[in-house]
Amino acid sequence: MSRTTDILLTALAPAIWGSTYLVTTETLPAGYPITLAALRALPAGLLLLALTRCLPPRTWLGRVFLLGSLNFALFWVLLFVAAYRLPGGVAATLGALQAMMVILMARGWLGTPIRTGAVVFAAAGVLGVALLLIGPDAALDPVGIAAGLGGAASMAAGTVLSRKWQPPVSALGFTAWQLSAGGLILLPLALIVEPALPPLTMTNLAGLTWLGLIGAAVTYALWFRGVARIEPGAVSMLGMMSPVTAVLLGWVVLDQSLSLLQGIGAAIVLGSVYGGQRANRLGAAAVARPTGLPRSRRAF
């Protein structure tokens, strides 16, 4: 399968994640972030385990629970804290810093060179998200900022370590392990911290089904598949598709306004995503090319 196909399939994941805000606010009861995160992760993980019939070996349990915590439990909890305490634009902009964090972490844990072009496009993407989402009334809450940065760092670490630790199973099986582990971590926390959920309506169940089956099981399988095939820096840039989708859905579904400045921000984000793919691909090709051989004579 071509690299372009791999990128498009991987980009589907953050594009669909952009629907999370709309689905959460329009279909789910408010005030139960940890419980809803557990209900999003655990049933989807158990379903995938039943489909793949593949349990993690004992030697992998520590890694699986660490990844489940970084990619789901810790990330989702911090994401909700940031969303509650910060304007959505500020929270999303802090989340966009994940691409820069991945570049730095990949250098330390994978030995991936830091490429100037990749850093420039990652910074441009953060600027684009800020223009897309931050309004003039944005307030800065210290706890919210810490949660936003912590959530970005958690997902960045999970992305890099998911690339570093590749088990001999399919992306679907790897997703099942992590979702189940993340759900098992979140479930007791939800029972201790939050009150019981009210009776769920059909609308609530439809929202949870979308977030669990599509927004977790399917999308994270695509995401971890991409993590295994594409450079970490290139994968992390694709995450910036999420705020673009969120704004477009708000415009189309909720009849929210879309200003010229937001349009410029969206264009910058899309341009930075494209440029980031090229910068990472060319950098990886340069590393793979044997020293002393011209481009046209490199070995395949």
From TrEMBL:
Annotated membrane topology: Multi-pass membrane protein
Keyword Membrane attached: yes
Alphabetical list of InterPro entries matching this protein: AA-Vitamin_Transporters, EamA_dom, EmrE-like
Compartment(s) of residence: Membrane
EamA domain ranges (all copies): 7-133, 144-274
Keywords: Membrane, Transmembrane, Transmembrane helix
Protein name, entry field: ABC transporter permease
Origin organism lineage: Bacteria, Pseudomonadati, Pseudomonadota, Alphaproteobacteria, Rhodobacterales
